[in-house]
Amino acid sequence: MATILGVSVAVGALLMLAMVPAATSAVRTMRYAVPAGAVPICFTGDTPRDPGYDPVTHEMYVPNEGYPGEPDGAPNITVLNETCHRVGTISLPSGAIPIQAAFNPSANYMYVTDYGLNQVYVISGTKIVATMTGFDEPMGITFDEFWDGMAIVNSGSERVDIVYGTINAGVLFYTGSDPYGIAYDPTCVCDLVTNTGSDSVTVYEDAIETTFSTPVGNSPRGIAFDINNGLDYVANSGSNNVSILAEGTSFLTVSGFDGPYGVAWDQATLSIWVTNDGNGKVFELGGSSGNSILKKVSTASGSHALGLAYDGFNDDMYVTGFDTNVVYVIS
User: Fold this and answer.
1) What is the pLDDT of residues 282-330, one digit of tens each?
2) Which CATH number, 3.40.50.720, 2.10.70.10, 2.130.10.10, 3.40.50.2000, labels domain 39-330?
3) pTM of the full structure
4) For the residues of 145-195, what is the DSSP string, one character each?
5) Are 275 and 254 in contact (CB under 8 A)?
């Protein structure tokens, strides 16, 4: 793999599929019933992961891992419109494990990482316009404003690649052990990657092309930047807390979560939302220092709330229920 930093690839530990929450048979018997949640829902495919929002078409793209033997068991991507109705389903090859979707405002494409087949799909509307190869268990993805491209986490070789349009330019930087999520922070002009194996966040300073590591809680997963406070929020699934970073360095820690997983910024309320895999609740954080839990919203019992994305058209937060096959809509 060619690099843009002139360094060789160091092969790291493989990210085990055990990171995916296990679904019990009791939960799977209710998969296609309407969950009795406290918020509106819309249906996706099977075992939905981390969605991405297209601000141009006002559509939400939901990667679905699939589950053999279920009615929607094949891996695919559900496309939902602004009224939360399915406008299309994008089929994926056998063996695909789609994880996360993210939008590129420069190229006007949606990108979806495929952990199972080491690919990244480039999507326009409901069509895959390119299937990019050369990745190593791709997971998290974000738009990097400094490089004007997509930064993609490769958990298998502990690196981040930079992609321009449909061209993989190579390695941008290297991470810690078992990298998972990624976010771009414009205040420090940095990419931040959560490392589930080393309980840390790798901070890559784009302008000077250097990295440093910041300790956080156990098994960090999702991460997002708070535009209002200029802070980064890290969901530590193993220690049931959220680390708040200021320009990549530790600022404070908020406790009281149950398997926190996904993190997203809410432009309407100027707050951060965090999903809880353990109890299916979604917490809203804010306040002057960003550490006050403002609201707790319940999804269906056993939902395993994982991914979430902000809908800028309706000012709603979309939350995926990994074991209920729906998206919960929080207004």
Assistant:
1) 999 987 778 888 889 988 877 899 999 999 999 999 999 998 999 999 9
2) 2.130.10.10
3) 0.87
4) TTTTEEEEEETTTTEEEEEETTEEEEEEEE-SSSEEEEEEETTTTEEEEEE
5) no
